[in-house]
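The instructor's notes for this session suggest beginning with a concrete chain rather than abstract definitions. Hand out the sequence below and ask the class to guess, before any prediction is shown, which regions might be ordered.
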Amino acid sequence: MVEVSASILSIQPENAIQTLYNLETAKIDYFHIDVMDGKFVENNTTTKMTEYCEYLNSISNLPLDVHLMVEDVESYIHSFSIFEPNIVTFHLEAGKDKEQIMKWIQMIKDKNIRVGISVKPNTNIEEIYEYLPYIHLVLVMTVEPGKGGQELILETIDKIRKLHQYIQKNGLEVDIEADGGINTNNASIITEAGANMIVSGSAIVGSDNYAEVVSRLKNKLS
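After discussion, reveal the predicted structure:
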């Protein structure tokens, strides 16, 4: 089964609580929390995402899918783990060496949170292989991380396919999540390549009917 994680990056603060409620009633599976520090990527969403996580802890029982696009991964693991997310994902590119990456993996596991590692579009997917036995999820960026509303980079589909084949061949249990430019027109291409979780933000939040778009996404993914 393929699941939909709704990015809340483009939600306007003045309508945030109502929009979050509308997303949940539209039958999404996760709230995707795009945490940016203004260093690893250009935008800084730390304050906004902290506020939205506080809202969600008060009004929702849906799991949080936290995506850290940050340099100081360790401090952000600590600050966002208080919201008891289901998943915390950091970027492979943020780690200086294997020792540091393994430390972050263990930190997240010690908090009883599922571990994800993300790769940018230009990172070779083979670089993630050695970490697959220790993590729960790989987040393949299908756009450059840092802002919403971009068009999907078609070359990233091959990375998803290659990763899926490697996971299957080696008998691993690792989810593949795709994030960036995903809508009802291209979701099926991504899932056919092997992704079993997709992140969709602008396609849902920018629509007039969240439930209809989520339903169409899930129909595409069936």
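Then share the key points. The first strand starts at residue 3 and ends at 7. The first helix runs from residue 16 to 25.
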